[in-house]
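Possible regression after last week's pipeline update?

I re-ran a chain I had predicted before the update to compare outputs. Posting the input and the new output here so someone can diff against the archived version. Not blocking, just want to make sure nothing changed silently.
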Amino acid sequence: MTTTDVARPEIRRPAQKRSRARFEAILDGAERLLDTLSPSAISIHAIAAEVGISPPSIYHFFPEPQLVFSALAERYLKHFEEGVLTEVPDDVESWQDFQTLQYRAGRNWFNAHPAARQVLLGGPAWSSDIRMQDLDSNFVMAGHSIAVMTQKFIMPEIPDLHDRLVEVIVINDAIWSLSIHRHGLITDAMEEQARRARIAYSRTFLPEYLPLRADPEYLPLRADKAAS
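New output (post-update):
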């Protein structure tokens, strides 16, 4: 048997209500630990002590510690997709301002959530699984951006717009990650660098001016439709 034939451990997702509550309590405990500790300093036994349950109870759901971080990544990305960067600002006049407000909301959320910074942008907690989750979420978020922009602006036909907006997110995240590595937060100065990079790259595929949509009753495309 080769190393590629060995089955990789996976999260055991609970079906019963009581088990789901314990599953979420484990994630809550790991999140509290991440507020003050690096992922490399967190073991299954440390999580068990934080939650007040036995280590085997955690191993039942998470055969290795990295899977706890993977499950936390799912939680954070779902929150980000559903609650951050999805609203249409009322007071913007340009796509540049719209983009800046979107990412400012994301930056504020990350700066308020130390555990999320470590899991999604901090680097050491990353595994290939978390990286793939993050890239998949970038695709979803780019679709949301297209839907919201379509509600706010009269959009021309732009080839591969979805892919280009995913690339904007990846560029932004690289600068945010560097800021977290250097300073522990996304600083004002590094956010300004990220803003410049986002707008400079966006100008390679977006026109400098997008006319505002006059019809307030216009409904945006759903994100999945915008991706097609």
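Follow-up from reviewer: compared with the archived run. Residues 218-228 have pLDDT under 50 and may be disordered. Marking as no regression found.
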